[in-house]
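User: DUF302 domain-containing protein, Nonlabens spongiae:
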Amino acid sequence: MNYYFNKTLNEDFDKVMEKVTEELKKEGFGILTEINVNETLKKKLDVDFRRYQILGACNPPFAHKALEAEDKIGTMLPCNVIVQQKNETTVEVAAINPLASMQAVENEKLNDVANEITERLKNVVNRLK
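Assistant: Predicted structure for DUF302 domain-containing protein:
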């Protein structure tokens, strides 16, 4: 089982970011954190790196269910989605596969939540065009 789902698009980076954010909203996710990796690496290490954003996405009702079922699950939240420039014309979007990460947690109460979030994140990635 892959630990992520991904899709590569021939699209402008900023437009892909807009599309990803819009698709996440359609599935009930908000963006809690946004990490601009290339800016951070430039600032902290003075290295040039491709455009790379990490979006910390959260679906509050499902996050609440997961936290109720397993109090340490917050170590795996929020669900990360990355947008990265692969070359001049392509941008890749990848989202974590919650089912893969939840396998490490031996708690059957999380199965339904993990399945639902997995389907919603797959929907986000699959609808990108």
